[in-house]
Amino acid sequence: QVQLVESGGGLAQAGGSLRLSCAASGRTFSTSTMGWFRQAPGKEREFVAAISWSGGITNYADSVKGRFTISRDNAKNTVYLQMNSLKPEDTAVYYCAANRLPSNPITIATLPTYRIDYWGKGTLVTVSS
Predict the structure, then answer these.
(1) Are 18 and 27 in contact (CB under 8 A)?
(2) 122 contacts: CB under 8 Å, gap ≥ 6
(3) Is the sign of the CA dihedral 115, 9, 79, 52 positive or negative?
(4) For residue 47, is pLDDT > 90?
(5) pLDDT at 33 (0 to 100)
(6) What gap in Å lies between CA 71 and CA 67, rounded to an integer?
(7) In whole angstroms, what is the distance from residue 80 CA to residue 21 CA?
């Protein structure tokens, strides 16, 4: 079992930055692909970024490429999402996700939500113009 708790959400101005954290408990964290997804009001949950268990492979949605950076610290059981150059359209609830092997950062991006093994409860990010 893996439990995920997100933090770091809040209000930011357009062009600003926020850093999200996801603290995980459970023995399988270090071998799980970790991802961030988001859901804006009235829209479906969408993939944002993912990172392999080793941190060596990352994948990003085109909408955040070059602005967001995902990283992980397996010693701290934590995954991060550094969000720079924020835009109003980045406003959403951001969810941390974990998927056990053989999932990878490419496949997790296309999985339906019910195929993701673990979800956090989400943290709200609001970007004002």
Answers:
(1) no
(2) 6, 39, 93, 94, 95
(3) positive
(4) yes
(5) 95
(6) 13
(7) 5
How far apart are the C-alpha atoms of 30 and 1, rounded to whole Å?
Answer: 12
Cα 113 to Cα 36, 39, 61, distances in angstroms: 12, 12, 16
Q: What is the pLDDT of residue 78?
A: 96
Token couple for 91? 């406003």
- Residue written as tokens 């339906």? 112
Alpha-carbon distance of 117 to 113, in angstroms, equals 9
Residues 6+ apart with CB under 8 A from 85: 15, 17, 67
